[in-house]
Amino acid sequence: MRFSHFFAHTKRSAAAQDSVNAYLLDKAGYVSQVAAGVYAMLPLGLRSIQKIEQIVREEMNAIGASELSLSALQLKSTWEKAGRWADPNFREILYYDQDADMALAPTHEEPMTGLVKEAVQSYRDLPVLTYQFQTKFRKELRAKSGLLRGREFRMKDLYSFHPDEASHNDFYEVCAAAYLKIFERMGLDAYRTKASGGIFTDKFSDEFQVICPTGEDEILVDHKTKTGFNQEVEDQVPAAKKGKLERVKAIEVGNIFPLETKYSKAFDLQFLDEKGERHYPIMGAYGIGISRLLGTLAEIYNDDSGLKLPRAVAPFDIYLIDLTEGKMGVELHDKLEKAGYEVLLDDRAKGAGEKMIDADLIGCPIRLVYSPKTAENGEIELKVRATGEVKRIKLDDLLPVLGKSLL
Amino acid sequence: MRFSHFFAHTKRSAAAQDSVNAYLLDKAGYVSQVAAGVYAMLPLGLRSIQKIEQIVREEMNAIGASELSLSALQLKSTWEKAGRWADPNFREILYYDQDADMALAPTHEEPMTGLVKEAVQSYRDLPVLTYQFQTKFRKELRAKSGLLRGREFRMKDLYSFHPDEASHNDFYEVCAAAYLKIFERMGLDAYRTKASGGIFTDKFSDEFQVICPTGEDEILVDHKTKTGFNQEVEDQVPAAKKGKLERVKAIEVGNIFPLETKYSKAFDLQFLDEKGERHYPIMGAYGIGISRLLGTLAEIYNDDSGLKLPRAVAPFDIYLIDLTEGKMGVELHDKLEKAGYEVLLDDRAKGAGEKMIDADLIGCPIRLVYSPKTAENGEIELKVRATGEVKRIKLDDLLPVLGKSLL
Question: What DSSP letter does each residue of A218-287 carry, written as one string?
Answer without folding.
Answer: EEEEETTTTEEEEGGGGGGS-TTTTTS-EEEEEEEEEEEEEEETHHHHHTT--EE-TTS-EEPPEEEEEE
